[in-house]
Amino acid sequence: MLSTRLWLSCCGRHCADRRRLVMVLSSSADGGGPAPERLEHQLQLIVASRVGEDQIAWTIFSVFWAASVLLVGVLFQGPSFPPDPALGFTVSLVGALMSIAWALTQQRALVHLERHEELIKSIETELSRDGHLRVEHQLSMQQPPSGWRARTIMRVSCWAAVCAWLLSVIVFAGVWR
Q1: Has residue 63 been placed in a domain?
Q2: Helix ranges restricted to H, the chain
């Protein structure tokens, strides 16, 4: 029986209908859980929201990689490398600041995605307990058998870009002296 309140907040710019979704799963007065139809409807809303959060995470990832590639292109555009130390330092500093913003934004999107998946699991568990759900949530949210998960690669690559840009800042600061 679900007796806790689960809140799902959705920022207006991420929701097509620009409203805040609030999911309250609480026991009814007679001690029973919420109606299965209500849980199924809430499950549909959360799954749709999870898909949106997944798209947001991948969009953040791709936009920041494209921006990083453009900044690296600025460093290698001239006939000689390294470029003017002041230009290299400035581009590297912008890349480092942008990568820190990228890492923090990416982390936030991934945490929201994981929170949605926990909500999905709890509702699916409640529905399967009552016999209203035929597929176990473990099938859809199963870990890959081996290798790195895409989320791990997203998190590691963000912070690797931060380190690479900071190293570049240090190198260009040393050359600039």
Answers
A1: yes
A2: 36-75, 85-129, 137-140, 150-176
- Pick the closest to residue 51 from 6, 14, 103, 13 (CA basis): 14
The structure's pTM equals: 0.66
Please write the tens of the pLDDT for every residue from 61-87. 999 999 999 999 988 887 777 678 888
The answer for residues whose C-beta is within 8 angstroms of residue 99's C-beta and 6 or more apart is 64, 68, 158, 161, 162, 164, 165
Count of domains forming the chain: 1
Interval 36-47: pLDDT, tens: 788 888 888 888
Query: Is 73 part of any domain?
Result: yes
Contact 127, 36 (CB under 8 A): yes
| 155, 107 Cβ separation under 8 angstroms | yes
